[in-house]
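ok so I'm stuck.
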Amino acid sequence: MYPALAAARRISCVLLFPFVLLTPLIIVCPHLARSEVRYSVVTIFSPADAPTLGGAAFDINNSGMLVGEYSRIDPDRTRRRAFASTAPPDSFELPFARHTFSSATAINDAGQIACYGGRTPSVFSAFRYDPDLGMQDLGNFGGATETTGMNASGQVVGFSETSSGLPFAFRYTDGVGLENLGTLTGFASVAHGINDLGWVTGVSDGRTIFLYRDGIGMIGLGDGIGYAINNLGVIAGTAEITPDVFRAFVTSNETVRFIDTLGGPSGVFDINNRGVAVGYTVVGSVQKAFIWTDREGMLDLNSLIPADSGWILGSANSINDLGQITGYGRFAGEAVAFRLDPILPRLRIQISNSMALISWTPAWPNILLESRSSLSEAWKPLATPATNYVSLAVTNSQHFFRLTSQ
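replied:
not stuck anymore, here's the structure
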C-alpha cells in the first residue's frame, strides 16, 4: 500500500455521475510521478527561547508528532538540545537541565520519547521520557549511553560503552532492564532499530549488519549498517556495494537487496510497515532526500514538493504508516527540520460527446478505481491502470466512483 493512502483503505473521493460504464479503455498517458506535487511541507520551528543554528528531526509517530535536536546558541557555547513537536510547526525542549547536551531519537504512538543527554558533548546517559511519568534513566554498562530507536511497547535500543570504552548494543525492556545484545565476534556493536516484535538491527564489529531475535541471538547479514526494521522483519540501511562505496538496501528473506540509486552513495534510514523506505542519496555533490517503493523505485523528494517552497530536502530520516515523512533540509539558508504531509488524490470526471475521462491527481501508484450503481451495492474494481486516466462510455444511468489503495 502506498503511504498517502495507508491511513484508510476506503475512499479518498466519491463522485456521483449519471453514466454507466461499458468496457473500460485504458488511456496511455505519461506517468507524472517524477514531477508532480505529492506533498505539502511543514517547517518545524525550533523552540524560540534562544538563537539557534538549525535542527533536524529523527523520528515521527502515526499521529504526526516528531522528535529531534537543534543547536541552541547559549552565552558560553552552542549546545545540541532535544526537542519534540507534538503540534507542528511548534516545538518544545525536553526537560533536560539547562546546561546539558541532548538529543531525542524516537517517539512511539503512546508519546513516549527515547532520548539521551549529558553535561559534555560526548558522555551521555539514556532516558525514556513519558508525558505522564517524566524522565526515566535506562541505566548503562559502565560508560556513555545513547538511544537510537524505540517500538510501540516502549522497548528502547541504542548502545552503551563499558568501562573500557567499547560500545555494545542494548535493548531496554520494562521489568527486564538493559540487556547487552552482544556482538558477532566480540569486538563492539550498536543497535539502531527495533520492531514491535522486539527484533533488533544495527551494526556489529564496525562493519557487519546484524539481526537479533530472542531465542536465536545475533546473526550477520553482510557488510553494512542496519538502520531500521519493520514489523515484517524487513531491514533497511546502507551497505558496501564495492569497497568503501555504500548504497541503500532493503532485505528480502534476510538477504541484502541493493535498491536503485539517483547517481551516488545512498542509505535508507527508515522503512515503514507498508514497505516504503526513505533516506538520503548524493546527486553530483548535493545530498538529497528520497523515497523508495518497490513499484516506483527511488524518487527525489525535492521533485514531489512545490517548486516555490524554498526548501532543499537533504535527508528523510523517518516515515510513519500514514506516509508522513520527517528529516532535515535547508530553508532560508538554515538547516531546519521538516514534516512532509501526503496530498490525497482527487477524482475528476470530464465528459466529451459519448465518452467520460476519469482522472486523479496526484498520480500515486497502487491506486484502484472502484464503482457501483447504487448505494446498496458492493464496490467493484473498475480498473487498475498503469496511468491515472481511464476512459469510459457514457449512458443515462448513474454510477458512484471511489479511489482506494491496494
